[in-house]
Amino acid sequence: MTEEWGAAHDSGAGGGGLGEREQALLAVERRSWPGPGAKERAVREGLGLSPTRYYQLLNALLDDPRALEHDPVTVNRLRRVRAERQQRR
Length: 89
Hints:
mainly alpha
């Protein structure tokens, strides 16, 4: 596991902020990815998560006010994308 991605487990952030894993999830979403599979590979190797589990955690994180406070640009972008997908269903 690389330092770039942080720990693949909750850090138990007692200060009310996001844990290392939550910060790492948002860091993955801030990056641009060169092609198909690169992001999923980074999630598996860097975070130690399956892509399915990654997206489950990310979706829950988008509803956490601490995530919005930590990275409002990324969280708001992802919330818009999620809302658009839900509207299409």
